Fold this protein.
Amino acid sequence: MINRIILSFLAIFLLAGCLQKGETVQVLTATPEDYELYLYSEADQEKSAQDYLSALLDWKMKQDDGTELQFKQTEKDKNELSIPTEELPVLVVKEKGKTIATISGNNPREKILMTLENHIAMVR
C-alpha cells in the first residue's frame, strides 16, 4: 500500500516536470536621450548576458554627460518575442523608435562595446 502511494507521488512529480511551463525572457531596458536599449536574455541564464551588461556599463562610463543610465528589468513570454530565442542574448539599439543596431549570441565585451560606440552619438 505504501509502495503504491510512493509510486503515485513519484508519477505525479515526474509528469508535472514534463508539462510545458511558460518560459520567460529577461528584458533590461535603458533610455539614454533619444535612444532605447533592450537587452533580452534567458531568464535562467543571467551569466550569458554578462558581457552585454559589462559592455553597457563600460560604454556609460565613457560618456561624460553626467546623466545616469538607469535600467528597468521586466520579463516577457518567449512566445511574444519577435526574436528567435536561440539567438539570445540579444541587444537591440533603437533611435527614435527605429532599430539601428542588433547584436546577438555570445560575443566578446569589446565587440558589444564597439557596436554601442558606433551607433549611439550622445550630445555633450
Observations:
- The two ends are 76 Å apart (CA to CA).
